[in-house]
Design brief:
- This protein is α+β, with helices and mostly antiparallel strands and 145 residues long.
- The chain folds into two domains: 30 residues, no CATH class; 92 residues, 2-Layer Sandwich (GMP Synthetase, Chain A, domain 3).
- Helix content is 33%, strand content 25%.
- The radius of gyration is 18 Å and the shape is globular.
- The two termini are 34 Å apart.
């Protein structure tokens, strides 16, 4: 299959708000009120957590369909730790990204724990968001003139 390109476009909105178009969907990102925002949407790092949970759920549905597993539902808790000092310009040696991310998944299906873990392992192997978090992706940043 040929490569597919996804695209998001965006601009700064009022205050700390960022408006992004993903296909036909508008996504608002903001900062909490205690950080100068209006709290009109999640902060960008929170959307990474949401994207990972959403990808795990979506891939889970695909695999369940393909393997004829009756998947009644899945719930997710994603947590990540980061040091905000680098993004705030207080430190230069700290990494601004997540130091660790943890995903807890509850799977509602007629599978024993071993089969649920195998199902979750298959999801992890096929989740593009998880792959981008685990592996280095070439990032090219250009000034648009």
């Amino acid at each position: 299959m040929a490569m597919k390109t996804l695209r998001a476009t965006g601009h700064m909105g009022a205050g700390m708000t960022i408006e992004i178009m993903c296909g036909e969907h508008k996504v608002y990102m903001d900062q909490p009120k205690n950080a100068g925002g209006a709290d009109l949407g999640p902060a960008p790092p929170e959307l990474i957590l949401a994207a990972y949970a959403g990808c795990v759920g979506s891939i889970g549905r695909i695999i369940a369909f393909q393997e004829k597993i009756t998947l009644r539902g899945m719930t997710f808790v994603v947590e990540a730790d980061y040091d905000p000092d680098r993004l705030l310009g207080r430190k230069t040696e700290a990494r601004p990204g997540f130091q660790e991310m943890r995903l807890k998944v509850n799977i509602d299906a007629d599978l024993d724990d071993e089969a649920k873990q195998a199902f979750l392992d298959k999801i992890e192997q096929r989740c593009p968001v998880g792959d981008n978090l685990i592996n280095s992706t070439k990032l090219i940043t250009l000034l648009d003139k």
